[in-house]
Write a structure and sequence with these properties.
It is a single chain. The protein has 18 helices and no strands. The protein has about 375 residues and is mainly α. The protein has a domain of about 230 residues: Growth Hormone, Chain: A (Up-down Bundle), CATH 1.20.1250.20. Helix 7 packs across helix 14 and helix 14 runs antiparallel to helix 15. The longest helix is centred in the last third of the chain and has 44 residues.
């Protein structure tokens, strides 16, 4: 499926143009204006989609969950016509309130063995990817004596590779998913969605990642030595295109797998993925310039590539043990749901018993005094 990683490479191009002609402060003014231009139509038109607020879309949003157009329309109509709710719908709408987010759920996902393996390796190749991006300004200025505009333009091949990988990988993943489903006799349900509990989703997602990692990590190694030897500009530009195509494609695949492993809470799984990879990526990009200074360009990127290669067996571990760990997690979740259901039934039973044993004095109306009077 297409992702937005390519904009990480498009940003430096725009930033280079602004910094070169208008100064570095113009970058922040540009971001403020662009964010405002996005926020206004977003607040006016984008409806609430949280299932705990609007359900499957049949329950109208309430209060601040409305868009501006919905709020204005509701003010013009009568209360019943504006809400369009029956009594049961109103109760359902009031019951669906936005809960305060619990960050501990993200940590719990990270602690799951099958998810942790994918998150850790995804964070490593994510760090390698951003190490390339972070060092382009300093290295290209040092080697080729480029200004801000020229450095920004050097991100174009990188961004093209990222954009191409997002579209190509999504289609290839869909084809492999259908092929694996056909091999195991799995019926794809496009209307209600697929239950992946007994489907080898690890195999369907990781089948294509091996050639991408082989080419991408080889290009990272060659990229370092091309810069070490002050090669012609065409060499690092071609290599960055291939790195964007392959390495970006690899961590897009792993990011998709993270959501597939935790389909009951995809937003929390995505948050866990962002937490781990951004934490590791921040540490990696924070020390990359120090590594280049002390190790040299060639050996620095060789070390990064070798680290990613050394941890590649983690993906084999995911293929072999991931389905077992995933099933263990599903069994635990089923047991937890059963316990909650039993606790709820017991609570209702106790409430019914308390009502049935209510004293006659409390249950019958006291009319004696009224009759005497």
């Amino acid at each position: 499926m297409p992702r937005l990683t390519q904009f990480s490479a498009l940003g430096p191009v725009i930033g280079g143009i602004l910094a070169q002609f208008l100064g570095w402060r113009s970058i922040f003014w540009f971001l403020v204006i662009l964010s405002g231009c996005f926020l206004v139509p977003f607040a006016l038109t984008v409806p609430e989609t949280g299932r705990n607020v609007v359900g499957n879309g049949s329950v109208p949003p309430q209060g601040w969950n409305m868009t501006m157009f919905e709020w204005l329309r509701a003010r013009k109509e009568t209360k019943s016509a504006a809400n369009g709710l029956t009594r049961s719908d109103t109760a359902q709408s009031r019951g669906r309130r936005l809960r305060w987010p619990n960050p501990l759920k993200t940590v719990l996902i990270v602690m799951e063995k099958d998810v942790a393996v994918v998150l850790l390796y995804n964070s490593l190749i994510y760090t390698a990817f951003y190490d390339i991006m972070a060092t382009i300004p300093s290295l290209y200025a040092e080697i080729y004596s480029f200004n801000d505009l020229q450095i920004g333009l050097c991100y174009i091949p990188f961004g093209c590779g990222c954009a191409l990988s997002s579209f190509i990988n999504g289609r290839i993943l869909d084809k492999i998913y259908k092929k694996v489903a056909q091999q195991v006799g799995f019926t794809i349900d496009r209307k209600r969605g697929d239950d992946l509990r007994h489907f080898p989703i690890e195999r369907a997602r990781l089948e294509i990642i091996w050639p991408l990692l082989a080419v991408g990590l080889s290009c990272i190694l060659c990229y370092g030595w091309a810069l070490e030897k002050n090669a012609n500009l065409a060499a690092p530009l071609v290599l960055t295109f291939l790195i964007g195509l392959c390495v970006n494609g690899a961590f897009n695949i792993l990011s998709t797998l993270v959501v597939d492993l935790y389909p009951q809470s995809p937003s929390t799984a995505t948050a866990a993925n962002n937490l781990v990879r951004c934490f590791v990526g921040a540490a990696g990009t924070g020390i990359i310039n120090i590594m280049v200074d002390h190790m040299g360009r060639g050996w620095c990127f060789t070390f990064i590539a070798l680290v990613c290669i050394a941890f590649m067996p983690m993906l084999w571990v995911e293929l072999k043990w991931g389905p077992i760990w995933r099933e263990e997690r599903m069994v635990r979740m089923d047991q937890k749901k059963e316990e909650q259901q039993r606790a709820h039934e017991m609570e209702e039973s106790n409430l019914s018993s308390a009502q049935s044993t209510e004293s006659p004095e409390e249950a019958m109306p006291q009319t004696g005094e009224e009759e005497k009077s």
